[in-house]
Amino acid sequence: MKRRRGLIIKIILAIPIIWFSAIGVSVVFHTPSDYVSLGKDDLGNGIQNLQKSDNLNTENDNNLSFDQRVENAEKRLRLNHLQAEGEPLEEGPSDGIHTQDPNGPGEKGRPVDIDKNKLSPEERALYDKGWEDNAFNQYASDKISIHRTLPDVRDQECKNVKYPKRLPDTSVIICFHNEAWSALLRTVHSVLDRSPPSLIREIILVDDYSDKPHLGEPLKKYLIEFPKVKVVRTKRREGLIRARLLGASVALGKVLTYLDSHCECAKGWLEPMLARIAIDKNNVVTPVIDVLDDNTLHYQHSSASATSIGGFDWNLQFNWHSIPERERKRRSKDIDPVRSPTMAGGLFAISREFFEYLGTYDPGMDIWGGENLELSFRTWMCGGKLEILPCSHVGHIFRKRSPYKWKTGVNVVKKNSVRLAEVWMDEYKTYYYERFNHDLGEYGDVSGRRALREKLKCKSFKWYIDNVYPELFIPGDAVASGEIRNEGNSAYCVDGMADRRSAGKRIKVYRCHNLGGNQYWMLSKNGEIRRDEGCMDFSGGKDIIIYPCHNMKGNQEWIYGDDLTLKHKATNQCMHLTADNLLAMQPCDGSLNQRWHWKRKTQKASN
Q1: Which residue blocks in 333-468 are alpha helix, DSSP H?
Q2: Separation of CA 486 from chain center
Q3: Which residues form the Ricin B lectin domain (predicted)?
């Protein structure tokens, strides 16, 4: 009885310490001895700017009953004791294990098909509102358990891998703004339900100034029974980049794992990432990002052999590519980590030490956009590696639009991209600037980021291209570039989308706008009229279309003659502007409507 009374007294004495630590903010900057010594300004300007008390509110044990606080304190004391003694933590059931009907909606990752035409007026209103608010089918999501089961999507070889018992723990940081209740909680529970408890130091939910009622008091009350989950709330809208910095500023784990707020982690998702960071703290790793269908929430996955890598185009937009042959030869098995030039940016894990060493995120970037490429370039150029792990799978809802609105007159994606170009891309930045006629706009002061690059002694962007992404088409090799303007009617330029999603779409003409964008084209030495990975393709039918460049000439080989004609070599026809201002292919006749002005360079295309 005396021993129990003594334990209770110790717990009671510990409560104020735990209570205050739960509502305070503490940022510890790590400067490992084998890294370049950096000051606070270098390591965490973004974190320091966001840790101020007037912009932060944390919730953990606040407003709990006395018995609940005692129970939480006892758990934490035991956890701290085991960690201090170096004992492996007991692998019991994770927080939130839940059983439900195995044949329920969406179980095993199955789709939930909603026939909106069979809904009642009230149900149809909810259905439409869900799409409007979230840009995915919230109505279907709400029918699925927040603990829904998923199939084990790993390759068999992955299931046979044995990971070390001692791995670094992680703080999982999930930023959200007005997220749907079911999607957010399914993200949280997929982490808790499918992760070894000893590896989850905490889950930090960063609420970026949500105004949906369910994300206030109801969320706070719901999370009371999950001591590993805490909420950090901003006092104004910060955007994804600064919200992530805020999450990092309060994180305690050795590894920071970032997830979006509409994800589902599959079995065995975490161990491969922590194991790679345990091997080398300079490894930045991402899971294979599987697709959660935005309409049915169907979990769609692929095998390790079909893993894609990240790239980018000269609009500084992220894109996916198949694994190049050089990387396939370097690896011995399909399940081996894949080196990737860039990452999508929403889901990744990074050592907290290395993140701080790299300078975290650029605090001068706003909202979101460009931060994924900037961190990718910085990782490779400053001593790290970026890998995609075929044995780690996380599903993600890919929305076709953003449901959020920002009151700003600034093109934030362009501003962020110019900042990264100014700091990291050296002479290659001009290829990006050509896309909008070098109208950089206001992008802020980048002197601090340039000083960081110099202090870290990072490599050049040419090194990055030569060693990390040699497959990238370099616009400097182009024979001609810029707008393609018709001589017969000089108000019109060739115009068209050229990304992978636009494959098969018709190339048209529109009024010239001198802004680059969809009117910026390049003529390669191989005779391709292209923008990045999309080439003009003509098969002899009615339309010129955009199609992925295949480097095999044929339908994609053009000749820009000294007479300013654009001749398709295979069909011997010329690009023509019709009387009603449509783009067509016709027999070459030398007319003004077949003459096109295009800024030439000194090289000649091969004929």
Answers
A1: 352-357, 371-381, 412-424, 429-433, 447-456, 461-467
A2: 39
A3: 481-599
Query: Which tens digits make up the pLDDT trace of 480-513?
Result: 988 999 999 999 999 988 777 778 899 999 999 8
DSSP run (H or E) holding 83: helix 66-85
Architecture in CATH of 475-600: Trefoil (2.80)
The DSSP secondary structure of 427-456, one letter per residue, reads: GGHHHHHGGGTT--------HHHHHHHHHH
Q: CB pairs under 8 A, 24+ apart, for 550-554?
A: 551/526, 553/526, 553/527
User: Please, what is the Cα angle at 276 between 199 and 93, to 5 degrees?
Assistant: 20
Is the pLDDT at 530 greater than 80? The verdict is yes
Task: Give 540's pLDDT tier (boundaries 50, 70, 90).
Answer: confident
The Cα–Cα gap between 196 and 81 comes to 18
More confident residue, 43 or 453: 453
* CATH 3.90.550.10 domain extents, the chain: 2-31+56-89+154-397
Of all residues in the chain, what percent carry a pLDDT higher than 90?
A: 64
DSSP state of 505: P
For the cut 90, the answer to whether the pLDDT of residue 410 exceeds it is no
Q: Which amino acid makes up residue 504?
A: G
Q: In the chain, which segments carry CATH 1.10.8.460?
A: 412-462
* 412-462 CATH: 1.10.8.460
Beta strands 229-233 and 200-207 are parallel
* Closest by Cα among 134, 253, 266, 131 to 201: 253
Inter-residue contact 273 to 389 (CB < 8 Å):
yes
What gap in Å lies between CA 110 and CA 95, rounded to an integer?
24
Q: Which of 200, 337, 341 is nearest to 277 (CA)?
A: 337
Rounded-to-integer distance, Cα 171 and Cα 179, Å: 20
What is the pLDDT, as a whole number, of residue 525?
Answer: 87
Q: Pick from 423, 409, 415: which is nearest to 451 by CA? A: 423
Report the CATH architecture of 2-31+56-89+154-397: Alpha-Beta Complex (3.90)
In the chain, CATH 2.80.10.50 sits at 475-600
Spatial CA neighbour of 491 closest among 518, 517, 511: 511
For tokens 């090194």, what's the residue?
Answer: 463
Distance, CA of 357 to CA of 556 (rounded, Å): 46
pLDDT tens, position by position, 317-337: 899 989 999 999 999 999 999
Question: Would you state the structure tokens that stand for residue 575, as one six-digit string?
Answer: 């690009």
Does residue 553 contact residue 509 with C-beta atoms inside 8 Å? no
Q: Which residues contact 560 (CB under 8 A, 6 or more apart)?
A: 479, 480, 523, 566, 596, 598, 600, 605
Distance CA 393, CA 412 (A): 31
Which among 455, 414, 420 is positioned nearest to 435, based on CA atoms?
414
Distance CA 27, CA 44 (A): 10
Measured CA angle at 292 (ends 287, 298), to 5 deg: 130
Q: At what angle do helices 66-85 and 2-23 cross, to 10 degrees?
A: 90
Beta strands in 487-526 (DSSP E): 492-495, 508-511, 521-523
